[in-house]
Amino acid sequence: MKQRNLILAYVAGTSAVSTLMGGFVACGAQSYRISVHGEAGEKVDRPNTGASGANVPSGRLPGVHSASGWKRSLPVRFLTSEDIDPTVVKQLQTAMKSWELAVGKPLFQYDGGEKRSGGDFRQLYEPLNDGVNGNYFDKSWFKSTGKSNSVLATTIWENSPRDASSIVKADIRYNSEFYIFGNSLEEFSEGKRTIVDMESLALHELGHLLGLTHVNETEDRFSVMNPSLFIGEGMITRRLSKGDITRIRSVYGIGDPTLVQTLETADEADSGDNKL
C-alpha cells in the first residue's frame, strides 16, 4: 500500500489532469497505466485549421476521425530525428508494419534521419511547417510543447484545406525528458525516467497519424487506441485488436489480398502478455 501511495503521489505531482490513472499493474513499483495524451478521450491534437476541434468529418465507424486519411498521398513519407537510436527506429518501423499488414498495402516510406530534434521547435505545432513528417524526441518537453510532464507523446496533423476528411501532414513528438523509449521487455527505468515500450506507444500514435481517434475500453478493451497505456518494465501492447483492423480498413480498404497476413489480434491472444 505504501508503494502504491508513492506512485500515486508521483503521478499526481507531475500533472494537473485528474483522470491520469486508469489502474495499477501488480508487477512493479514503476509499472502503471497512464493516459497517453493527458487529455479527455475525445480530444486529439490538431492544428488550428477549419477541421479542428471535434473529430469531424468522421469515418463510417466510431473511432475514426479522418474518413479519407492519407489515401491521396500514400505512402506517408517520414523522417526520424538523428538523436533517436536506430534500435528505437526499428521498433517504430515494426509498429508501422503492423498497420500495413492489416490493410495489405504500403502505408509508410522511411526517408532517413532528420538533424533537428524536438528542442529545435519553439511551440507544439511548429514542426508542421518544416515540410516533412517527422518523429522527434523532446528533451525539454514542456518548454517545447506546453504539454504536461506526464504526457508520453503527442501526434499533430493538418487536414487538407480542400477536403477536411484528408490528412496532408503530421508529426509525432515524444517526451524523452521524462520517459525512456525502447523495448520494455529488455530495458529498464532509470531514476525518475520510466521505460515505455516504443512499439506499443508507436502503434497508438501511428493510429492517430493514420486517421483513428481514441476508443474507450467499454467499446474495445483490447484496442491499441485505448486512451491509456501500461508503462514500465515488461509492459507491452503490441497487437492490433479486431476492432483496430476493422477501423483502419474502413479508411484504407484492403490492397492486395495476398499481402494481408493473418494477424494474431489482442482479442485472440492471452491478455496476460498484452495488457495486465
- Count the DSSP helices: 5
Strand content of the residues, in percent?
15-25%
Q: What's the arrangement of strands in the largest beta sheet?
A: 4-3-5-7-6
Helical fraction = 10-25%
Q: State the major sheet.
A: 5 strands, mixed
What's the Cα radius of gyration?
A: 18 Å
Explain what the structure shows.
With 276 residues, this protein is an alpha/beta fold. It has a single domain, classed as Collagenase (Catalytic Domain). Helix content is 22%, strand content 20%. It is built from 5 helices and 10 strands, in the order αβββαββαββββαβα. The strands form 3 sheets. The chain has a 5-stranded mixed sheet with strand order 4-3-5-7-6. Strands 1-2-10 form a 3-stranded antiparallel sheet, with helices on one face. α2 packs across α4. The longest helix is centred in the middle third of the chain and has 18 residues. It is globular, with a radius of gyration of 18 Å. It starts with a helix and ends in a 24-residue tail after the last helix. The N terminus and C terminus are likely disordered.
Keywords:
276 residues; alpha/beta; Collagenase (Catalytic Domain); five-stranded mixed β-sheet; globular
